Amino acid sequence: MNRIELLSLEEPRYLARVFWQHPLACLGLARHLPFNVGRLARRHLRDPELLRFIDMECYCWSVVPAAKTPLINAGMVFSDRHYGGVNYPKGGVGTIAQALATGLANHGGQVQYQSRVTRILTEQGRAVGVKLATGETYWAKRIVSNATRWDTFGALLKEEPLPKAEQRWQQRYQRSPSFLSLHLGVDSAVIPAETNCHHILLKDWSELEASYGTVFVSIPTLLDSSLAPPGHHIVHAFTPSWLNDWDNLGPTQYQAQKQAKANQVIARLGCLFPGLGQSIHHCSIGTPRSHRRFLGRRDGTYGPMPARPLPGLLTMPFNRTPLPGLYCVGDSTFPGQGLNAVAFSGFACAHRIAADLGG
Ligand SMILES: Cc1cc2nc3c(=O)[nH]c(=O)nc-3n(C[C@H](O)[C@H](O)[C@H](O)COP(=O)(O)OP(=O)(O)OC[C@H]3O[C@@H](n4cnc5c(N)ncnc54)[C@H](O)[C@@H]3O)c2cc1C
What we know:
The chain is an alpha+beta fold. It has helices spanning about 10-20, 25-30, 35-45, 50-60, 70-80, 95-105, 150-155, 165-170, 250-270, 290-295, 340-355, and strands at about 115-125, 125-130, 135-140, 145, 175, 180-185, 200, 215-220, 230-240, 280-285, 305, 325-330.
């Protein structure tokens, strides 16, 4: 895959060129497109513990076990650990977004922050602009939505009938849970110096997909000490949680539940880092309601997950949509969730739009 220039798979001239340049690599990729990891793993492995481990390897980024995780997507994620190694952006992941925004500004673009789009405007069955919560309107030849497909078609286009292709997509994919997320500031003495950055906690394999079953832990200050004051570490711990557990709670109940659930996670972290509970100086707790509010995601969802085992990535939609002039990017388009995947979808969409505009 590394040898192939990756652009929009919706652009036939690019597909023909790449196939001509790398026919064997393309055939190899196409052969794996309709499969999931579980099928391949079960063909070669029998050890139940190893198969569960592969389930976890998939679940920790796709939020579904191997049987529902597309092979191509997994290939990208797993091989990314080896080509060039795992890298951490100094200053935290926010620096990636800042670098993109700076690049955009350097090329004459403008980012308008704090601007919530409430509607995609249409004229004669074509997307032609957006309306903001302030009432301002913007008009363009092409509109790109980075909201999820549920929010794009269910909220921003709610006055339009739901296209048939979107109806099919909504039957095949469902919203995955959101997360309960803790950012802790702790005394550095509680984290031994040789500790690894990432950990996963799970008591019982049968709870892999359960709410609050798997706890993901990362300690970014082990890689970049500048993120916390001297003598301190940041511990980020998050675990799957559904919005239903948090909706319809009054302010007092909501605060009490946040603290109670956070205490449970902190108690579990104690098995990795004894004494952690007594060395916390700062604790921010995010819930599915926080994800919904700050990311504008329906139910605070992490992203789409297959409602049933599907043929790999074949049913994932690309960037074009049934509404002319409207494109979607992000984790509800090919090839799915994760920073690499959504970066690819943005890249592919830019290529498709340039081709549509005659570039
Ligand atoms: C706790 C957690 C840990 C994760 N860890 C990793 C990891 O280690 N590695 C990895 O690769 N991936 C990780 N992911 C997944 C990754 O963050 C997502 O797959 C990715 O951010 C999705 O990108 P996106 O552009 O589709 O959506 P988002 O990142 O949600 O971006 C959409 C943007 O659109 C904005 N928006 C939405 N609606 C509107 C509107 N109406 N008007 C204006 N703006 C709007 C939102 O505010 C948001 O900024 C993690 C996710 C979570 C929740």
